[in-house]
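Q: What would this complex look like in 3D?
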Amino acid sequence: MKIATITVVLAAAAIGAGCTTTLVRSRDLGNPNVPAKTLAEQVCSNCHNVDGNSINPTFPKLAEQQQEYIIGQLTMFRSHHRDDPPGFEYMWGISRSLTDAQIKGLAKYFSSQKSVPLAPGNPKLAAIGKQIFHDGLPAKGVPPCASCHGDHGQGNGLFPRIAYQHADYVIKQLNVFQRTNERPDGVVMKTITHSLDHKNMEAVAAYLRGMTAK
Amino acid sequence: MGIDLRGSRSPRGSQGIKNTADTVATAPTLAKEIGRRLAARVAGACALIPLLLVLAPQAQAVPSFARQTGQNCVACHAGGQFPELTPYGRLFKLTGYTIGQRELPLAMMAVITSNKQKVADPTQGKTQDGSLIFNTASLFIAGKITDRIGGFAQITYNNYDNQDNPQGRWAGHSGSDNLDIRYADHLINNHQDLIYGFTLNNNPGVEDVFNSAPAWGYGIVPGSTGQGSGTSTILEDGLGQQVAGIGAYAYWNKTLYAEISGYRTGDGVFSFMTQGNGGQVYIKGTNPYVRLAYTKEWGPNNIMVGMTHFDVRPYTDQSNLGGPTDHYRDLGFDAQYQYLLDPYTLTAMVTRIHETIDPGAPGLASDTVNSLRAKTSFTYQAKYGATLSYFNYDNTNNNASSFSAVDARYGSRGWTPEVFWLPMQYVRVGLQYTKFSKFNDTSVGASDNNTLFFYIWGAY
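A: Here is my prediction, written as C-alpha cells for the whole assembly.
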C-alpha cells in the first residue's frame, strides 16, 4: 500500500506540475500565447528538425527559407488554399489555430537557421540540372530557375529558397505545379513547368541538393 | 496513434492460461465451399462500407489524437496502417500525447470478422466456422490533458468473450484494455535534444514506441489467428491488464532510448486499470522492466535495434499470496527498419524473446519458452497494403508447474500473409491466411488449423 500511496502522490504532483507549467516548453497549438520559437522547437522540429534541415524528404527543408514565403505558405495552409496531399495531411491541422504573430515568428525562426547542403546528386544529372537552372531550356520556352530563385537558389521574398532542398520534394512539387491547381499561389510555376519532362525535373533536383556540378 | 487493435487479452498467469483471442482463432482453412460461402459474406460485409463512408465524412480519422493534431493518420502511422508508428508518431507518444490542442478526448473502434478454420471445432461455433460476426468494440478516452500530461485508456467489449453457459453460447463482456498515461518534457534547442518522461500503464511494453514491441507489433485486429497454440512468453501475453506499472524514460538526440519501469499487481488503488479482466493475477512486489534502444534516421529510412528485460515473480499458487513464487526472466532483442516516402511505406521488424521459468516449488527444473516473430508490411498510397509475418514458438517441458502439465509442448510455427485496403483512413478491410507447419509441437495435422480470416475495422 505504501507504493500505491506514493504513486497517487506522484501522479498528483505530476498533474500539478503539468497544470502549472509555463509556456516555455508548451506543445499547445491552440494557445496564441505560446511563443513561435517554442512551437518551432516543440512541434515543427519533429518533422523539419530543430534547425530546419529535415531528414526525411517528405518534409521540406526550412532553414534559410525566405520569411515571406514561409508566411505565405503557413497562411495558405491555415486557410486551406494549399491542398496538395502532404499539405492537408500534415499542415492544415498544425496551422489551423496559429496567429499571424506566431506565423511571422516561425518564419523568422526558420529563415535564420543555417541550411546544410545535401550530398551531391548524380553528377551527370546535376550537370544537366545546372544548365537548366542557369540557362533554362530555350527550345522549350522554359526560363532559367535562377531568374526568380537567385543565382544561388537562395530565393527572393515570395520566391522560395530552393538551394539544398530535398530532390524528392522538389520533383513532387514541380509535378504539383505542372499537373494540378493545388497550389494556386504558384500559378506562375504552372506555365514554367509546362514543358518540363520528368528527366528535366530529376536533373534540376539533383543539382539543387548540393548546388554543385562540373 | 498508439491504439491497441488487438482488444483485450486474458492473462496467462503461472499456469499457462490460454488467451481468448488465440482460442477463438486457433485455426483455419480453405475449400471450395468455404470460399464460396465466405465470398458471399465478404460481399455482404463490403456492403457496409458505403454506410461507414456516409457516417464519417470528415477526414479526421484516428479518433481523438487526429482531432487533437488535426493531422491525417499517415502523420503518425506508416502508410496509415495501425499500429506501425512513424518517427513523428513515436515523438508524439514520447512527448506524452500532448502535441496539438485539447479536444473532446473520446474515440471508438469496432471490428467485424469472419474466421474460418480448415477443420473447425464445432464447440467454437461462429468463431471458427466462417460466420461474419461482430467481434469487438472499444471506447477510447485519449488525448492531451495539460501541456505535459496526456494519455489513453481503452475499454473493450468482446462480443465472444466466453462460453460459460450450458448451451455453449458465446457471451459478451467488457473490460479495461490498454492504458498509458504519461508526463513528458522535451528539452530541445540547436545544441541538445532530450525527451524525458514518466508513464503509468497496465501492460508491460504498451508504453513502447517501437513497432517490434510485443504489445504492438504482430497482432493486427482482435481475433486474428496469431500463433495458434504456441505458448508465448509472459512479456508477450501474460500480464496485460493485470498489472500496474510506473516507469521513467529518456530519449536522447533521437538516438538512444532508455526506460526502466516497475510492475506490481493491479489491485487496490490500481484496480481501475484491470477491471473486468477475470481473475486477478498476483505478482510479488515490484518487478523490473528495462528497455534500451538505438535509433537512426537517414533520408526516408530509419532503423531501431533494441533489447528488453523483464523479471517478474507471479505467485505459484494464486490463492496463497504468502507462498512461493515462480520466477520468469524474459530477455528480448528486436529490430526494425522503415522506409517512408510517399507513395510507399515499408516496415520490417523482428523480435526474439528467450524466457526462463524457475518454478517456485523446490527441486524442480527450470523451463524455457522461446519466441521468434517477424513481419514485413508494405503500403502504397496509404490505401493498399500487404503484410507477411512469421512466427516460431517452442518451450521445454520439464515440469507441470511451468505449463498445464508435464510434457505440455505448445510449439507452433507458421506464416501469415495478408492483403488489406484502406478505402479511407479510418476504415481497413483485410484478408489474411495463417498456414501452420507446427501446432502443439508437431507437424502432424498442423495444417488442420490453417485459418482464413477476414475483417473490417473501423474507428472514429
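A: To summarize the key features: Chain A has two domains: 10-111, 123-210. Chain A touches chain B through 47 residues (CB under 8 Å).
Q: Very helpful, thank you.
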